[in-house]
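call fold target=Formyl-coenzyme A transferase
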Amino acid sequence: MTILKGYTVLDCSIAMAGPLAAQRLGDLGADVIKIEPVNGEWQRHTAAGDAKGNEINVSFLSLNRNKRSLAIDLKSDEGHKIIRQLVAKSDVFIQNYRAGVADRLGVDYDTLAAINPNLVYVSMSGFGETGPYVKRPGQDLLLQAMSGAMLSAGRKGEAPQAAGQYLVDAVTAYSAFEGALAALLHRERTGEGQKVEVNMLDAITTLQMQELSVFTVGGVPQTRSDEPHAHSYIRAPYGTFKTRNGYIAIAMPDFDGLSRALDAPALSGLDVDQAGWTDRDQTFAMVREAVVKFNTDDVLKRLEAEGVWSGPVYSYADLVADPQIAHNQTFVEYDHPTEGRVKTPGFPIRFGRTPSSIRYGAPLTGEHTDDILKDLGVSEQDIQSLADTGVIGRREK
């Protein structure tokens, strides 16, 4: 038995953050019903990296496993009636609509809580549901830029670089996932449902608990340097360095060990405070000039022998092939009816008694419409009528 078996989640979210949060609940066994327009959710038609599939693109495929698809027109009276029926028997409702949309569609918290007071309602937004930025677009790069984190890395005077992943979307998804689980635990103890609000700005801000406390409590400003330090609040050398045939990362080493590993006598005996903070550009440059004389494998072996914290800079190909990744079973593989054999990151939390599982891959648009409506007691004749009038979309079997 999986942890959330018997729970029903209505996923009315789009793009990445909401669908990923709902997918995590599905990975733990919840019956996740993806509520999407009759012609499919927006992400079905737009893939990161232009990674098209056969019938489902890779972006949608990666964010919507362990879900059933109900394709329905929420603006129709019949469609809204069906949603109310589903809400009455559901445990969690997730939405990340723009401000005001949930109210216009009649799926705001007050309306749904009146139908089902035990409902856990997760509302996700870019900046919060009220306040001066409520109408701003909640987009990952824009929130990364606003978070302050970009100005903690890289060279002084150069344009800050964004993270190489959809960082804000991901941390917001996990915040919503945690919020839903916590609210379900509260409901188990008290019988009370509640509204859970998560926004991208708070999620990426609170992720920087340590860094922002250094600024707000310690009063230490962000100061980028001429050399490309990986973090303004960590002493040199700290960052990535070019070798003869690639790149490596070095983190906060002992200078004597670093000196021996790199055959660089000038690094021996350096004062940590002086070299690491006051003269960190000079220190970084000295290490850069020493590292580039070695091949990647050779220098990593030398650094490891001296106990210097270091490691390779991986490509995605390197990561997927890594033996620890294989040992951890970080990636999962399964067969999809239209996309073939799928290999994708799995669920990252291990449970001794209640492991996660993949019961089915990302659904085709309206693939489960008939089954979901039959669960509600809708007759085959009425289902056909709803399809004929465009209220629902269905996948002919």
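return ok
The longest strand covers residues 31-36. The chain has two domains: 8-206+326-393, 238-242+247-312.
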